[in-house]
Design goal:
It contains 5 helices and 14 strands. It has 250 residues and is of the alpha+beta class. Strands 1, 2, 3, 4, 5, 6, 7, 8, 9, 10, 11, 12, 13 and 14 form a 14-stranded mixed sheet that branches. A hairpin with a 4-residue loop joins β13 and β14.
């Protein structure tokens, strides 16, 4: 157990999009044998209610480092219970599915659609279908300038998204995205599970599909396999790599 203020101090020092903290729920719990744990996520600036990427990482640590013997892990979080399971060389996350709603008006320049997710406070901006993936990748986004432009607290993340192409070297992806959250101290996130909990709902409706393959076009980039379920949730699968191990001493 950590002192409450240490969570934020460690996350600020790590300086990653999110740092995850896994905790035992009961004194007798074991990281190698128990199947249910507490989980919290902190950006360099504050705690957030949902982070798919850090949940994937947490499951990876339990499955591959502590050698947890359970087939399914349950995390108790600010977004309710989230489950993670291994399927081949992927880890599948069971996340909430968030609906989006159109605002009163949409401009007609390069934006094809605009949606808002009140549950997550994410604004979804869909670029014109006329654009290629390279337009999204090369777009210069000055996320720091969002802060003085949006001070109401109604927007905590901006999703830029683009419909996939059925031809060309990048064919096979149903949609692309980039994600910015300067309100949480994250200028651009590499790959974002929580954003895809919103994107999955939107693109499933637009494409008439429940099984989708997505790619987040950050500099690092990442692929997500999406399966929208009938119970109002979504399975998002991704691959993991253990890149660093260390010990904190107090």
């Amino acid at each position: 157990d950590l002192d409450e203020d240490l969570h934020q101090k460690i996350a600020t020092e790590m300086n990653l999009s999110e740092t995850a903290f896994i905790r035992k729920l009961h004194p007798g719990d074991d990281f190698a044998k128990s199947s249910c744990f507490g989980l919290r996520w902190f950006t360099p600036a504050n705690e957030v209610p949902l982070c798919g990427h850090a949940t994937l990482a947490s499951a990876a640590v339990l499955f591959h480092i502590t050698k947890n013997t359970n087939s399914v892990l349950t995390f108790v979080t600010l977004s309710g219970e989230l489950k993670a399971r291994q399927v081949g060389d992927h880890i599948v996350l069971d996340l909430p599915l968030y609906s989006t709603y159109p605002p009163a008006a949409v401009g007609d320049l390069i934006v094809q659609d605009l949606r808002y997710s009140p549950d997550t406070k994410k604004l979804l901006v869909r670029l014109s279908d006329a654009y290629e993936r390279s337009v999204l990748e090369e777009l210069q986004v000055r996320a720091q300038q969002f802060l003085p432009a949006e001070k109401t607290g109604k927007v905590k993340g901006l999703i830029l998204t683009l419909k996939g192409s059925s031809s060309g070297k990048h064919k096979g992806y149903d949609f692309y995205s980039r994600y910015f959250a300067p309100w949480y101290g994250v200028l651009e996130d590499p790959v974002t599970g929580s954003a895809h909990a919103v994107l999955s709902s939107y693109w499933s409706e637009q494409l008439g599909k429940k099984e989708m393959l997505a790619f987040q076009c950050s500099r690092r980039g990442g692929e997500l396999k999406i399966s929208q379920r009938d119970d109002g949730r979504v399975d998002i699968a991704g691959q993991i790599a253990i890149v660093l191990r260390g010990n904190l001493t107090f």
